[in-house]
Specification:
Largest sheet: 3 strands, antiparallel
Distance between the termini: 24 Å
Shape: globular
Helix content: under 10%
Strand content: over 45%
Order of helices and strands: EEEEE
Number of helices: 0
Number of strands: 5
Length: about 70
């Protein structure tokens, strides 16, 4: 089951996803994390180690932050 979070502001449920992308300038690969309102390919079961979830107080959208 994908990691989910209910927004305190909008009461919507968001699911954590991860995706590996190649950076254009350096060609290095980096994993990006994002929240989506539905479960898609790349859904994650847990928060990556060293990260914490916070919520934007203005928009109510969750995001990951190094903790």
């Amino acid at each position: 089951m994908a990691y989910s979070l209910v927004s305190k502001k909008s009461a919507r449920t968001y699911y954590l996803h991860g995706k590996t992308v190649t950076l254009k300038n350096t060609g290095k690969q980096q994993t990006i994390y994002y929240f989506a309102p539905d479960i898609r390919e790349g859904a994650l079961d847990a928060i990556p180690s060293g990260m914490i979830v916070e919520e934007n107080p203005r928009t109510g959208l969750p995001y990951l932050k190094r903790g």
